[in-house]
Description:
Two copies of one chain form a homodimer.
Chain A: H1 2-5, H2 8-20, E1 27-32, H3 35-38, H4 42-58, H5 66-85, H6 89-94, E2 100-105, H7 106-127
Antiparallel strand pairs in A: 1-2
Helix pairs in contact in A: 2-5, 2-7, 4-5, 4-7
Bound molecules: calcium ion.
Amino acid sequence: TRFDVNPVTDDISRLSSLRQNIPKDYKIPVHYIPKEEAGMCWVQLNVYYLEDSLQDLAHKFGNISSNRRDISIFIQMLQELRLNMGSVELIMYDFECHYRKERWQTVRYFDFVKDFLIAAQNKEDSDD
Amino acid sequence: TRFDVNPVTDDISRLSSLRQNIPKDYKIPVHYIPKEEAGMCWVQLNVYYLEDSLQDLAHKFGNISSNRRDISIFIQMLQELRLNMGSVELIMYDFECHYRKERWQTVRYFDFVKDFLIAAQNKEDSDD
Ligand SMILES: [Ca+2]
């Protein structure tokens, strides 16, 4: 899989420079379920809306933008991950009432993305 | 002067890529006097607070950030301009009640910076 080619540590370092290049007091909308409510299904339950929020974030930047380009790499990563996962619709429906809508400052948002990528990597490893 | 070495057109194109790399719905605080109230003194009246707002903006980014680096180039430009101008304190004091505090979205903010740089360039040319 893509994660085996590009180790997750490279992605984490790209994520860190992307984060530093967005104003720290910018508020990014999220739609998510916290770990303690999602348990083992945290990755499956959050992949769809995380990809969605990254898409919205990408569109806040112009066509000639390193931030937009970096975000699109993570979007592609999540898309591949989601396709490998099969349908997440049923489980999302089951957990419907657990979803929260918030706006997070840049650091918190990218900490979430980082946690997500690490959890997805661990999940893939244990699924192998 | 610095402006003669680096034509203002290069600065304008750097400004445009910087603008595209900041979220378009981000709000940037400004403290300014509009052209119609400042007349011939527009550049002198706005140089100080513009430099100040660029300093604040630079600090919204991390240490490893292309945006922060690009902003610091404009800060340096304004500092040199201001030093060449001599003291602006007295005229700022005279126009004190004309200053406005607002928060502008990225495009409007960088349009202001662009207008300012062009006006400063024209002023320098006519002062030569
Ligand atoms: Ca794997």
